[in-house]
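Hi R.,

Here's the chain you asked about this morning:
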Amino acid sequence: MTVAARTAKRHLQAALAAICLALAVAPANAQTASTQADVYTVANVPVDATAASADAARETARLQGEHQAYAILLSRLTRASDASRLPPANDATLNDLIQGFEVANERHSTVRYLANYTFHFRPDAVRQLLRGAGVPFAETLSKPLVVLPVLDSGGSTSLWEDPNPWRAAWNERNAPAGLVPLVMPFGGAEDIAAIDAKTAVAADNGALAAISQRYDGADVLIAHATVVNGGTANESVAVATARYSPGSTAPPQTWNQTYKLGAGEDESALMARAVAGTVAQVEDAWKAANILDVSQVATLTASVPIAGLQDWVAVSQRLRAIPAVQKTDLMAIDRQHAEITIHYVGDLTQLRLALAQNNLDLNGDASNYVLAPHGAGTPH
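And here is the predicted structure, written out as tokens:
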């Protein structure tokens, strides 16, 4: 081996050692550190119990909260069609599944206890429970969705304009967080300048990109509701929903559903039911696309363009936040590229989708995969 070759080898070894050290001590960014943990955390569970004493009421309330949180978590991870197959939980099972909890807003008397609990579940224990029951599940967190509720009613189309009972129903929605975080825009001057009802319905690329940029590159959900026979006993709401990823060449996901006024319902209750149904469609489609077959294990090798050590550390942290990625091996690195092997479960389409939710694009094919942050250029 020549002197030059030995020197190059030492430089490479030093670079690899520096990267390993950086990965060992570098704190993950907020998204990386919290993404998977947040999926298995159920926050703000309200409890209210009465018993013979304050201590007994507190214990009863905590156990009630654990059961509520367990039901919320399983609903978050699994499809609605599998609800009847979910394993029931007793107090002993929950004791094994729950890692810890936090309490807020405590109020009590001598016999009553009220509070809000946040429960942290053990991911591996929950996975094992669901696999043992034969229930498929998803745990990949979607990018946030900016919701644009467009309403056609009485011959007018509105988004930001008032009144818009459809937008009000979305703003008033109060439900546990799922795998698809929803963002309700403020409706201020900058939102109004970015997109209006007309450009939203037309899915104008520039307007979609503008509102996405307003909310940190989030995907956009156009929820277009049309009121039919408004103000009568035959009133219904036809909802056409589309999910867009600005900058992506993939076609939008779309859903259509009509909700009819039920006995004893008023328009606000009908709108609220239509909102819940629309969210369920979006959530279920996301889960269906991200249910992982853990028996399907594969690897791929990719080149990661970098301009420095911090670029690689940032990509590595994003990879660590993806449940489908079991581990990543750094094979080689120089000043412009890192070569990595990714070990993952599920299929390649699911991996690409999971990477995209963490702002990573996997391009090319098996002969030349390139992994880079979304929108990043290749260093030269």
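One quick note: The chain has twelve helices and 14 strands.

Cheers,
M.
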